[in-house]
Backbone:
């Protein structure tokens, strides 16, 4: 806590805390008192992030973060060393590309490798289960919070209860129970669960640091005009909110298939006083007029889509981006269908066991080429909006 | 996924569950389950230790002696509440023993 506050700057944290507390009080007033949480709760906020609702939940999440950090440093390291010994034992060149099927059959039942998988998954399951159990235990309270926020501004929320949810979106990505569409508190669970992912893989994001920095690096159209922005597959709206903060005068939209995700996104933005708009819509069918947006983006969405959906989404991005407008989807570099054993092991494992159901299809595409084939010019030597990820700065041709 | 308040809209759709609990990583599903129990137990132990640290700090600030804690008698309501909490704890820690694993780590790899 102290380290993070120091990182952010104590003054900035204090200002954000006041804003959040005021917004929470406003929500409580709006519903005339919410159904009760246990005595002493809620526990306040750490800047933009409401503290986890109970000390026990916070401690359980603190454990799963610590385990995750240790796992990546020690257990995974041991597993990869076992993997290297396996390659040597089988006479496999560690630099020769192999397929996912080849790597899958190779690692079967090497206990030094599989204990890594089981222990990581057990920890991941505890992360999700303890969060889910809490929000369901106090479902009346948390549903009331969302109901109070649904019609409140700034910003708007559109939910589509009769929308046909495509099967490809129904999977439990990252083994999150219910995935992004199946749990009323999918947004709550995702938000707190992914904070430990960020800390262990990219960096602290409890204050949306990663999203704000990424939004800050997105390029503008050549004429500098940014009046409307679309964030496709916006999830809980961290990127959408960051874009609205960067472009406060712009009309900013986030769309996502997950009703609970956009519902949480709207509630959170509304509490922070950020006037972004959210809608439960498909990224391949956003319903916006042709040529409507100056900037269209997505944040690590496409590897969760089958190849056919990715192509449809790029078609939709072309339709709604104005000539000269920027399309900058953020996602992994395309790894291809063959990779050296260590790299392919990671790709296959994430797909199979972290339940990134469509990630191998994504990596089998050349995503940049798919964009270029659909009416966009690709900017050469462009800047990475999110360092370490793919750079796809595209401009809609006139 | 069960909807907790069926009379209130939740904007959910049925999810396709992962098969992680039906998977055998360690050659014997019982060993898999035991590893899951061990991780869960560790999580609960840390949660308890962390709460103790908070308690000790708060009590010391408030001048409450260890003797008063040792002689505390819970009320009936507290006993009932703590029993429910105990049952939740046991379900989290020991629940994985009920998983039914049958899929192999890699070769039972469904095409997706």
Residues:
């Amino acid at each position: 806590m102290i380290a993070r506050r120091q990182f952010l700057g104590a003054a900035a944290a204090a200002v954000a805390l006041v804003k959040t507390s005021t917004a929470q009080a406003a929500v409580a007033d709006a519903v005339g008192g919410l159904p009760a949480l246990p005595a002493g709760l809620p526990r306040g906020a750490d800047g933009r992030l409401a503290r986890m609702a109970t000390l026990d939940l916070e401690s359980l999440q603190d454990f799963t973060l610590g385990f995750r950090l240790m796992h990546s440093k020690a257990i995974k390291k041991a597993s990869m060393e076992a993997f290297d010994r396996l390659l040597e034992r089988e006479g496999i060149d560690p630099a020769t590309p192999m397929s996912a099927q080849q790597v899958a059959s190779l690692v079967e039942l090497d206990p030094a490798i599989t204990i890594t998988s089981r222990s990581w998954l057990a920890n991941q399951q505890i992360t999700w289960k303890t969060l889910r159990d809490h929000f369901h235990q106090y479902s009346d309270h948390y549903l009331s919070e969302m109901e109070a926020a649904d019609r409140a501004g700034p910003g708007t929320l559109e939910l589509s209860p009769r929308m046909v949810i495509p099967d490809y979106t129904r999977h439990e990505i990252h083994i999150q129970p219910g995935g992004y569409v199946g749990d009323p508190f999918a947004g709550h669970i995702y938000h707190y669960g992914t904070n430990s992912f960020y800390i262990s893989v990219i960096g602290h994001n409890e204050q949306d640091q990663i999203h704000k920095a990424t939004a800050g690096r997105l390029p503008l159209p050549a004429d500098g005009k940014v009046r409307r922005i679309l964030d496709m597959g916006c999830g809980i709206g961290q990127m959408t909110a960051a874009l609205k903060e960067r472009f406060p005068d712009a009309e900013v939209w986030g769309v996502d298939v997950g009703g609970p995700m956009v519902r949480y996104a709207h509630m959170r933005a509304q509490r922070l006083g950020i006037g972004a708009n959210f809608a439960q819509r498909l990224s391949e069918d956003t319903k916006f007029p042709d040529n409507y947006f100056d900037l269209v983006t997505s944040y690590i969405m496409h590897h969760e889509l089958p190849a056919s959906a990715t192509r449809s989404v790029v078609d939709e991005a072309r339709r709604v981006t104005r000539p000269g407008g920027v399309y900058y989807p953020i996602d992994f570099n395309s790894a291809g269908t063959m990779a050296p054993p260590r790299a392919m092991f990671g790709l296959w494992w994430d797909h199979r066991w972290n339940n990134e159901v469509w990630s191998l299809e994504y990596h089998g595409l050349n995503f940049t080429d798919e964009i270029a084939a659909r009416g966009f010019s690709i900017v050469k030597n462009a800047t990475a909006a999110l360092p370490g990820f793919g750079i796809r700065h595209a401009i809609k041709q006139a | 996924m069960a909807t907790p308040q069926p009379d209130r809209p939740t904007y959910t759709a049925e999810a396709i569950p992962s098969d992680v609990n039906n998977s055998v990583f360690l050659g014997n599903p019982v060993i898999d389950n035991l590893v899951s129990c061990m991780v869960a137990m560790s999580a609960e132990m840390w949660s308890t230790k962390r709460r103790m640290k908070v308690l000790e700090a708060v009590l010391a600030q408030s001048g409450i002696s260890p003797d008063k804690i040792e002689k505390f008698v819970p009320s009936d309501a507290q006993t009932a509440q703590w029993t429910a909490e105990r049952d939740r704890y046991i379900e989290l820690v020991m629940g994985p023993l009920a998983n039914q694993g049958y899929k192999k780590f890699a070769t039972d790899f469904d095409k997706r």
